[in-house]
Design goal:
By secondary structure, this protein is an alpha+beta fold. The chain has a single domain, classed as 2-Layer Sandwich (60s Ribosomal Protein L30, Chain: A). Helix content is about 25%, strand content about 30%. Helix 1 runs parallel beside helix 2. The radius of gyration is 14 Å and the shape is globular. The protein starts with a strand and ends with a strand.
Length: about 130
C-alpha cells in the first residue's frame, strides 16, 4: 500500500483552514484549492487578472516544491465566482499551461469574500 506524504511550502501563504497544501500518493500529487493570495502580504487583489495570475503562481511554486511542474498537470479544476471571467481565465491559463493540456473542469460557484478564482490540480511526479 502506498503511503501518503504531506507536502508544504514556505513560498505560499499558509491556509487557516484544516487542510494540507498538497498530498503525494505514489507518483501523483494532489494540491488543495489555491487562491490568489500574495505569499508575502497575505492580500488578495481586487481584480480578476491579478488574482488569477497569483493563483497560478502559487500552484507553480507548490508543484516545484513537491518535485513536479506545470508540465506534469493531469487534471485541473477551476472555480470561478463569475461566469464572465472564463475568457480571461483561459488567456491566463494559456500563459502557464502552454502544451499537452491536462483534463479540466470549470465551474461557477459561490466563493467567499472577494475571492474570484480558486484552482485545484492533480499532477504527476516523474
Amino acid at each position: 500500500m502506498t503511503k501518503k506524504q504531506i507536502i508544504s511550502s514556505t513560498r505560499v501563504f499558509p491556509s487557516s483552514n484544516p487542510l494540507s497544501p498538497a498530498v503525494r500518493v505514489g507518483d501523483l500529487l494532489f494540491l488543495s484549492g489555491q487562491i490568489g493570495r500574495d505569499p508575502k502580504t497575505g492580500q488578495v487583489a481586487d481584480d480578476f487578472a491579478p488574482q488569477a495570475r497569483q493563483t497560478f503562481e502559487n500552484i507553480k511554486m507548490l508543484l516545484e516544491d513537491a518535485g513536479s511542474s506545470m508540465d506534469n498537470l493531469v487534471k485541473v479544476t477551476v472555480l470561478l465566482k463569475r461566469p464572465e471571467d472564463l475568457a480571461a481565465m483561459n488567456e491566463i491559463y494559456r500563459e502557464y499551461i502552454t502544451r499537452d493540456f491536462p483534463a479540466r473542469s470549470s465551474y461557477t460557484v459561490g466563493l467567499y469574500n472577494n475571492i474570484l478564482i480558486e484552482v485545484e490540480v492533480v499532477a504527476s511526479i516523474l
